[in-house]
Amino acid sequence: MRKYETTFILDPSIGEEKIESEIKRVSDLIQGHGAKILQNDRWGMRKLSYPIAKKNQGYYVFILFEGEESLPKELERFYILNESCLRFLTVKSETEYAPESQPKERSTPKSEAEDLE
Fold first, then answer.
1. Model confidence at 95, in pLDDT bands (50, 70, 90)?
2. What confidence category does residue 97 fall into, taking pLDDT thresholds of 50, 70 and 90?
3. Which residues pair with 86 in a beta bridge?
4. Measured between alpha carbons, how far is 26 from 63 in angstroms, rounded to an integer?
5. CATH number for the 2-95 domain, one of 2.30.36.70, 3.30.70.60, 1.10.3720.10, 3.100.10.20?
6. CA dihedral defined by 10, 16, 18, 19, rounded to 10 degrees?
7. In sequence order, which residues have a C-beta less than 8 Å from that of residue 116 and are 6 or more positions away?
8. How does pLDDT run across 35-68, given as a tens digit for each residue?
9. pTM for the full predicted model
């Protein structure tokens, strides 16, 4: 099994209940194929960089999951057929995610640190 990330943007005009049901449908599709959801982040309503289907805002959702190689193709098919989905992207994840990890401090090389003093 491989780790994948999928991010999709939903049309905000469909309403909060429909947004919740669409997110549940994606989660059920992933789990229905024997995959395990590792992280499910709802980024919420955000302004789009450019209009998509005459919409200026979208509801962003990020899901990290571990599944079979055929699952991203099924997700793509689902997104294409779903009229509520404005955009989507599914990629193999090469980054290790840990919810409790903190960003590392960038260390300054010794020679640069001496020059700053």
1. confident
2. low
3. none
4. 9
5. 3.30.70.60
6. 30
7. 108
8. 999 999 999 999 999 999 999 999 999 999 999 9
9. 0.76
Say if strands 2-10 and 85-92 run parallel, antiparallel, or are unpaired.
antiparallel
Residue 4: strand pairing partners: 65, 92
Element (H, E) at 112: helix 110-116
Task: Give domain limits for the chain.
Answer: 2-95
Measured between alpha carbons, how far is 111 from 74 in angstroms, rounded to an integer? 52
Please give the torsion angle defined by the CA atoms of residues 64, 17, 9 and 45, in that order, rounded to the nearest 10 degrees: -100
